[in-house]
Design goal:
Two copies of one chain form a homodimer. With about 350 residues, the first copy, chain A, is an alpha/beta fold. Chain A contains twelve helices and twelve strands. The interface between A and B is large, with 43 and 43 residues. Chain A binds a DNA duplex (30 and 30 nucleotides) through helix 2 and helix 4. Chains A, B: GO terms for molecular function: DNA-binding transcription factor activity; transcription cis-regulatory region binding.
DNA sequence: AACGTTCCCGCAATCGTTTGCGGTAGAAAA
DNA sequence: TTTTCTACCGCAAACGATTGCGGGAACGTT
């Protein structure tokens, strides 16, 4: 069994001190003399003493656990976020409990509940894009520090860590325009997806600033974009009389579908139609031609989110001011779009 | 703050009962009358009572947390394992704490320590292939139930959940032979990698059973196989006078490197050289030609591991018998290998 | 010598829950 | 009526660490 661990009492007895003294000695309390501290430290090391985390948490009402809720751990981007979270949390001495919401709002609010009930010190969440009611989230927020990342919502007044989506897609479209493309299609999700909408914003802005007409025929949307949907949307775009000369998808996996379909129809990439994705996923260098896409620094986002969350946990006065932190992205030009020629 | 939660004492006071009675009522203890139980239940629901997990854990020395240690969460296969773990743990009422070892044995043993000190009820681990000393693992094992999965070691006497690696690669090689290939190369890792060795076993067995000569020139190894190494190894194999007509890699990502290199050298896949990978990673359908590979059901492995672990946690007598559970794999034939012609 | 300080340290309560043991009321048996 | 037996329930200790408070010893100050 687990009863091999030593307790404060044991140390106290062996040293003929009280448990309080031992506790204070270990916590470097000023009331304790240096000699006593040293003696206690020494014996504690020898006995491999480690404080019982439950007694501690129980007493201090602190668990040093942060809860993380993501839609799906198998998405590459999610996993890079998690990597960053784990790394930073480890450094700061926190443990991480991870759960999946699977984009199911019922599950999501359930997870929120159990996390709270479990007593995590703070919650890091990527909100499901289907979330329509925020009451439960707001409720939790009153009790536990919450930081949103990646998929956020302006309806929740807490600190949010995001990439500058609009700017990122603005850069992507700018790039396409600079390479001479004039009829740029976008494949996006419907308006309930926060990220999709912001990326769409950037698209619109870039076109407007370059005096390019916005044509709704080459703006296609669907729910839950994926490779298959990418394929379908591409066929739709190819059936147009006036075809696009570039396709921007708000997702890498959709972009893969686009490329595969274009290749099947023997359309030259990027000369006839250029393709740009979003995410810099693992696929992007596997597919041929290699995909031009936007790199979202997942690890950095995760790390930043943890930093802000722990800050709010440890400094409750910080909790009132909710900020939005934007992480910069990079456009990575590969073979699916033209190079700029001077 | 968090002080909104109600306690046993509160309920007891409002109902003019003792906390013990309330506790027993909530735990469905036979000593308590049905009417009392109902009253308690009702009020508990009304007050949104949830037991303080720390007081509980403190008292019962049980946390309902299982610790998971994997080398790298961003590997697709790892993330599917995690998905399975999360799902099953959630069903069984356990929380999951995840950490990465990054294939660093120091980190790994550190993680093991903090998990133990943290008081997890059990540990699920995929051991780093560099692990040479097992003393710390064995030490932990005496205190906490441990189940190994994916990357295991026969030097640790605990239950292990693996795919039948040897059989899987045997199937792969058999398939290649049946499609007429006679000179089959293998790209593997060095002998410190448990998985690699077992896959190599299957390779050897298949060749022997089909009376095919084993040629060490087309058996190439390296440490930490990846896409780049796949490329390098392929060039090495192509430089041979007597080239292989099929390449089996023990990793999908290496297989991608192989395919990319073969394409660069204008070698027809699968006619001149067929390629088979291992893992059924996400890449396998992105690359062209699509990769023939072995599907490892990650979610199922994760789920199974959790099941066995919780069984050992809740039934200490089970802990003595250590079993090896093998999960079946499937060969998925795609375009990088020939179809069998009858 | 009497008093005030400072430095260390111990006592005991506390956190919320569980559980062994003992106790009481009421019913049933004598 | 007395005794025995259930069926229910409460008392209090326990888990391990933390902390307010109080106190003794040693020293310095008048």
């Amino acid at each position: 069994m687990r009863k091999k661990v030593s307790t404060l009492k044991e140390i106290a007895q062996k040293l003929d001190l009280s448990t309080s003294t031992v506790s204070r000695a270990l916590n470097d309390h000023p009331d304790i003399s240096t000699t006593t501290k040293q003696k206690v430290q020494k014996l504690a090391n020898k006995l491999h003493y480690t404080p019982n985390i439950f007694a501690q948490g129980f007493r201090k009402n602190k668990t040093n656990i942060i809860g993380v809720i993501v839609p799906n751990v198998t998405h590459y981007f999610s996993s890079t976020l998690i990597k960053g979270i784990l790394k930073e949390a480890d450094i700061k001495g926190y443990k991480v409990i991870i759960t999946e919401s699977n984009n199911d709002i019922k599950k999501q609010s359930e997870m929120l509940q159990t996390m709270a009930q479990f007593g995590v010190d703070g919650i890091l969440m990527s909100v499901s894009k289907k979330t329509k009611s925020f009451t439960d989230i707001l409720d939790i927020m009153n009790r536990i520090p919450l930081v949103l990342f990646d998929k956020v919502s302006y309806k929740i007044p807490c600190t949010q860590i995001v990439v500058n989506e609009a700017e990122a897609s603005y850069k992507a479209i700018e790039h396409l325009i600079q390479t001479g493309k004039k009829r740029i299609a976008i494949i996006k999700e419907n308006k309930f997806s926060y990220n999709s909408e912001r990326r769409y914003e950037g698209y619109l802005k870039a076109l407007k600033q370059n005096n390019i007409e916005i044509d709704n025929k080459i703006i296609v949307s669907c729910e839950d974009l994926n490779l298959e949907q990418g394929r379908r949307m591409t066929k739709l775009l190819l059936s147009l009389k006036h075809k696009p000369d570039a396709i921007f998808t708000i997702t890498d996996s959709a972009a893969i579908g686009v490329i595969k379909t274009l290749k099947r129809f023997k359309i030259k990439i990027p000369r006839e139609i250029a393709v740009v994705g979003f995410s810099n996923s693992l696929y992007s260098t596997i597919i041929e031609p290699k995909l031009t896409t936007i790199d979202q620094p997942g690890e950095k986002i995760g790390k930043t989110a943890v930093t802000y969350l722990i800050n709010e946990i440890e400094n409750p006065e910080e909790r009132t001011t909710s900020k939005t932190v934007e992480i910069a992205t990079n456009l990575i030009v590969r073979d699916s779009s033209l190079k700029i020629s001077y």
